Amino acid sequence: MKDQDGDKIARRALLALFATGAGMLIAGCGLVKSYAPFRYRLTVEIATPQGLRTGSCVIEVTAGEVGTTLGGASAEARGEAVAVDIAPGQTLFVLLRSDASYGWAAGIMSGVTPKANDLSIPREERFRARIDAVRANHKLNVVPRWFAPRNDVDAPVTGYPIMVRFRDTRDPKTVELVDPDNLAISFGPGVTLRRITVQLTDDPVTTGIDKRLGWLPHHRGQLVSATKDDPENVRKLSNVTEGDFSMGIFQ
Fold it and tell me: Can you give the residue ranges of every domain in the chain?
C-alpha cells in the first residue's frame, strides 16, 4: 500500500509540474539531472470588428530531474508575456502563469503533448520520455480552454493563462483582469479570443516588454489594482507580480 500511495503522490506531482504547467523546483530538493532547453512560440489570436489581431513571444524551457525519495521534476521558463494590440491604446497582456499554475509557461508544451503524460511508462523512465515526447511535437498545438481531469484531480483545469489590461500602461495600479471568455467587456463589442497556440521553434527568446511597461524592470511584488469598486478583480490579481510578465530577463 505504501508503494501505491507513493506512486500516487508522485503522479500528482508530475501532473502539477507538467500537465497543468507548474514548473517550479520542488522545495528542498537538489537538481540531479538537467536536459538541454527547448523553445516554443506562444501565439494569441484575437478577432475584432476591424480584423484579426495577433501577438506572440518565444519562451525557453529548461527542465531537470530532482532528487527525492519519490522522484520529481522541475522546469523553468525564460521569456515574456504576449502583448496583443487590439486598438489604439488598448492592449491585451497574456501572462506566463494561469490561475492553476505559477509555472504555466514552463509546462504548457507538455500539457498539449499527449504522449508526454503516459503513466504506463516506468516511473524511472517517465521524465525522459516526457521530454522526448515534447521535443518530437513539432506541430502547431491549439491550447485547450480546459484540460480534462486526470488521476486524482477531480475537476477540469484551465488551459489558459491569466490575461490583463491596463487603463494606463504607465501605471501598474490601473491593471484589470480580463475574462478570456468575454473579451468584449474589456475591449468592446465583437472582440473575441480566437485561439492560443504553441509550437516548437529555434527562434531566439523574445524580449522588449519593458518598452511597453516602463515600470516593469523596477517593480517588485504583487500588482495592486486601484479598481476598488471591483473586489473580485482585486482578489484575483493579488498574486500577480512582475514575474508573470517577464521571467529570467531582468536580473
Answer: 2-247
Residues 6+ apart with CB under 8 A from 177: 162, 163, 164, 233, 236, 237
Closest to 8 in 3D by CA, of 129, 111, 110, 151? 151
Q: Hey, what's the cell of 100?
A: 492553476
Whole-model pTM: value is 0.85
Residue 65 has a pLDDT of 81
pLDDT per residue over 32-75, tens digit each? 678 899 999 999 999 999 999 999 999 999 988 876 555 567 88
* DSSP secondary structure letters along 23-81: --PPTT--EEEE---EEEEEEEEEEETTEEEEEEEEEEEEEEEE--TT--EEEEEEEE-
Q: Are 153 and 146 in contact (CB under 8 A)?
A: no
**Three cell numbers, residue 85:** 494590440
Could you tell me the end-to-end alpha-carbon distance of the chain, in angstroms, rounded to an integer? 46
